[in-house]
Amino acid sequence: MPRSTAWIIGGGSGIGEAAAWALALADKHVIVSGRRQVELDRVVERVRAAGGSASAAVLDVGDASAVRATADVIAHRHGPVGTLVYSAGTNVRRRFWDSVQPVDIENVMDANLHGAVRAIHAVLPAMRARREGRIVLVSSWAAWRFSPGAGPAYSASKAALGVLAETLNAAEGRGGVTATHLCPGEVATDILDTRPEPPSAEARGLMLRPDDLGEAIAWLAGLPAHVCVNELVVTPAANSSYA
């Protein structure tokens, strides 16, 4: 039986890389996309060295035509995308209203939200036709509970992913296509370095690891088609967001 295809956007590092690894272990062919070829190649080599199946597709999610073209190439070479994981995301250091600029907010919204819309739009018709598809939108605790430290651009963009998931499930769930708004608490990834005051090594040691989320994504992707997890909130036991 041929492997089903999983497309991980933002798959070159962090949660996306962990998702690629976990989905490959679940016997899916994974395509990792992102802007940096070197990072993608490293993930592909790691997966293949462990006996998994993977390939890379360089992509800038800000380019709508490139997102569509990449989805078409994936479908032609590997079959239609059965699982879409949107893990691309960013924030800016100067993120608060006293310093953030409109262009900064536009850039964060484009990477975190508009790119997700482009990706969903590219894979949804084939999922709908097959009456099967799983979409995981990697969001944030900042989308689930107000988080002052995240800033308006990040919080707004991630909260909007929850709306995308809800509307997808309302419109497509009966047809076999479901979406999950995945809201992790603090995860020890490189995005922490964009904070005005990046956390210490000690603080990072208390956070979730990317592999924790990779396993959660693989679990979501492996659920029966009649099961829909609308929203999943995962935090470290030492959840500093309560502080």
Number of strands: 7
Radius of gyration (CA) equals 17 Å
Largest sheet: 7 strands, parallel
What separation lies between the terminal Cα atoms? 49 Å
As for the CATH topology, it is Rossmann fold
Would you identify the CATH architecture? Answer: 3-Layer(aba) Sandwich
Approximate helicity band: 40-55%
CATH class wording = Alpha Beta
> Into which percentage range does the β-strand content fall?
15-25%
Segments where pLDDT lies below 50 for 5+ residues? none
Q: In summary, what is this structure?
A:
Residues 4-194 form the Ketoreductase domain. Keywords: Oxidoreductase. The protein is α/β, with parallel strands linked by helices and 243 residues long.
Please, could you describe this protein's structure?
This protein has 243 residues and is α/β, with parallel strands linked by helices. The protein has one domain (5-242): Rossmann fold (3-Layer(aba) Sandwich), CATH 3.40.50.720. Helices cover 46% and strands 17% of the residues. The protein has 8 helices and 7 strands; from the N terminus they run E-H-E-H-E-H-E-H-E-H-H-E-H-H-E. The protein has helices at residues 14-25, 37-49, 64-78, 102-130, 141-144, 152-172, 201-205, 210-221, and strands at 5-9, 29-34, 53-58, 81-86, 133-138, 177-184, 231-234. A 7-stranded parallel β-sheet has the order 3-2-1-4-5-6-7, sandwiched between helices. Strand 4, helix 4 (102-130) and strand 5 form a beta-alpha-beta unit. Helix 4 (102-130) packs parallel to helix 6. The longest helix has 29 residues, at 102-130. The radius of gyration is 17 Å and the shape is globular. The N and C termini lie far apart (49 Å). The mean pLDDT is 94.
